[in-house]
Amino acid sequence: MSIAEVRQTAEHKMQQSVESFKSNLAKVRTGRPNPQLLDTVHVDYYGSMLPLSQVANLTLLDARTIGVAPWEKGMGAKIEKAIRESDLGLNPASQGDLIRVPMPPMTEERRRELTKVVRGEGEAAKIAIRNLRRDANDAVKKLLKDKLVSEDDDRRSQEDIQKLTDRMITEVDRLVASKEQDIMAV
């Protein structure tokens, strides 16, 4: 394995950490509804638990309502029950074949709690990125120990990996700030 391969692997894994963080942020509720909010809800579908998105079509009906259209007529009651029992605090209402999920307005206290959750998620993403930096630096040090690279190459690659890490952490900070702004906007 060469220094370039170590760096490329580290960059790829760091990028995956940032993408994972983005998907986690999408699940945190802001003032407006997002169908991804219901991704964590699982429904009993003939004995197996499936994500809601695999048994129904999720859409935004208006600025405060998510629409859930089951693909099978008999699934409506099960979907409604699954949403109600989830820890999201939502109260779905059936309207013919469509299930309407109104999003209650958020209180100031709840907004502050959510910003803490976002900061915690951001810190977890930063820790993952720093761990990847450590793994990449260890891999380069092993190459140095095995005399496959020079000390200058080792130092240059560590600086390069540090710049990459700084760039990824800056991206995470930017995403956290953006999400906090979304949450606190009334």
From TrEMBL:
GO terms for molecular function: ribosomal large subunit binding. Its main location: cytoplasm. Keywords: Cytoplasm, Protein biosynthesis. InterPro entries: Ribosome_recyc_fac, Ribosome_recyc_fac_dom, RRF_sf. Residues 21-184 form the Ribosome recycling factor domain. One of its GO terms (cellular component) is cytosol. It is found in: Cytoplasm. It comes from the Bacteria. GO terms for biological process: cytoplasmic translational termination. Belongs to the RRF family. Responsible for the release of ribosomes from messenger RNA at the termination of protein biosynthesis. May increase the efficiency of translation by recycling ribosomes from one round of translation to another. This is Ribosome-recycling factor. The lineage of its organism: Bacteria, Pseudomonadati, Pseudomonadota, Betaproteobacteria, Burkholderiales. The gene is frr.
